[in-house]
Design goal:
The chain is mostly helical and 113 residues long. It has a domain of 58 residues. The chain is extended, with a radius of gyration of 28 Å. It starts with a helix and ends with a helix. It holds the Pfam family Mrx7. InterPro entries: Mrx7.
Length: 113
Amino acid sequence: MSPLHFLIVALRHMEDAIVSQILRSPGFHNGVRAIHRRVQDYRYGRNPDEPLRPGEATEDPSVGKTGFLTHFIDEIRNQIRGTPSNDVQPPQKTGDDWYEVLKRKADKEKEKE
């Protein structure tokens, strides 16, 4: 038997151990369950007998489902067109350095004494 054969067998055992560890984890099953539910809802629609999911009763139906990907694509389009987004304003500089703020605070404490 060559050393390459032993390496392949060792890698196969490591792969089996990793897969079995993943399959035992509840997080993996929760993720698969969520993906399956979304696919089924998309294909066949919601089951009216199923109870509401968390946050579903309070969400505003007039507001569309906007997520990160939608905002990201809008930002890329705006950058390609050269039009700036007016949604986010740049942070305002106060002109104060953190050292200056701490120094003034220490001076005020000294004045109180």
